[in-house]
Write a structure and sequence with these properties.
With about 300 residues, the chain is of the alpha+beta class. It has three domains: about 1-20 and about 45-85 and about 250-310, Alpha-Beta Plaits (2-Layer Sandwich); about 25-30 and about 220-245, no CATH class; about 90-215, no CATH class. It has eight helices and 18 strands. Strands 1, 2, 3, 4, 5, 6, 7, 8, 11, 16, 17 and 18 form a twelve-stranded mixed beta sheet that branches. Helix 5 packs antiparallel against helix 6 (about 195-205). It is flat. The relative contact order is 0.26.
């Protein structure tokens, strides 16, 4: 039984390649994706491994108490669990405003349902009524009132596609009607690092689920990597390959579940509350972690924000 939980958001500061192995497509090294949605995802095992490595730099005997023994797990298990990081906001080029953070009704509802299953209700973080988004068409887009994405003729252009603006009003709780995108931005603010909050309303865009799926599939970065033979000055045989990357500015979310430690009274660790404090302090101290491959090329830098609702 998990006694305490944390919500984590991951903001990509550089492109991220968390690989899934080889591929039969034109991309040699694709990113990890959910099987049923084809959305980008970051496996919880990789996240836990990176954060465990950070913990070893700061802690001593507390590492195995919290994360479990590194090799022989027969003595006791870890008391902390990291879920996969799911996509929440995906950056897409925009004709106006440089880029947009797109999301969709399915993504928002999934996030809402997962929060509510953990006991985070609309009363605590102002979750809007997302049912109003059910009939969003593929050629429609919803943006905030002070958005920088709007073109003069009342449209928004992302990549090579043009969308018609749609306005949906929802109750703000005081009997007034407000743009649903404003309410979504206000809700997501609770979980984002402070440096993103000022830009979210300017760039947030809600598109249909099908449009979102296409963008996260085809609006990723594809880079070609080579190795030059220094004797001939040409590409070495078999050393030309492509790599898929989640673009910088993408925002993922995930959860940390904490149970009572199986090995107690070590360095002050007596219960799940002590574990949560240690993990929270660790992530707030380091903030930036590096996930995936190509670390020496600066890939995979992500800023982690911790939301503690207890």
């Amino acid at each position: 039984m998990y006694n305490t939980k944390l919500v984590l958001t991951y903001h990509a500061l550089t492109p991220v390649h968390v690989g899934s192995g080889t591929s039969v497509s034109y991309v040699d090294n694709p990113i990890q994706r959910e099987k049923h949605t084809d959305f980008p995802v970051i496996a919880g095992s990789g996240i836990k491994g990176v954060i465990r490595e950070l913990a070893t730099r700061k802690w001593k005997d507390k590492v195995e108490v919290i994360f479990g023994p590194e090799r022989d797990g027969s003595e006791h298990a870890s008391c902390i669990s990291f879920t996969d990081a799911k996509i929440l906001l995906f950056p897409v080029r925009s004709v106006k405003g440089v880029f947009a953070w797109i999301t969709s009704p399915y993504v928002l509802k999934r996030f809402k349902n997962e929060l509510e299953s953990l006991g985070i209700s609309g009363n605590s973080v102002n979750i809007p009524n997302l049912n109003a988004l059910d009939n969003l068409k593929d050629d429609e887009i919803i943006i905030c009132d002070n958005s920088e994405l709007k073109i003069d003729d009342g449209t928004v252009a992302l990549e090579e596609f043009v969308f018609n603006l749609r306005e949906i009003k929802v109750n703000d709780g005081d009997g007034n009607q407000e743009n649903i995108s404003n309410k979504v931005a206000e809700w997501i603010w609770s979980f984002l690092p402070s440096h993103l909050k000022n830009n979210l309303q300017k760039r947030l865009a809600i598109v249909s689920d099908d449009v979102f799926k296409d963008f996260v599939k085809y609006a990723v970065e594809i880079r070609t990597r080579i190795r030059i033979d220094q004797m001939t000055g040409t590409v070495e045989k078999g050393k030309l390959f492509t790599i898929e990357l989640v673009p910088a500015e993408a925002v993922f979310y995930g959860f940390v579940f904490i149970t009572e430690p199986y090995k107690k009274d070590v360095s002050g660790i007596k219960n799940s509350s002590d574990v949560k404090k240690e993990v929270k302090d660790l992530l707030e101290e380091y903030q930036i972690i590096q996930l995936g491959g190509d670390e020496t090329l600066g890939m995979g830098l992500m800023r982690v924000n911790v939301y503690d609702y207890h």
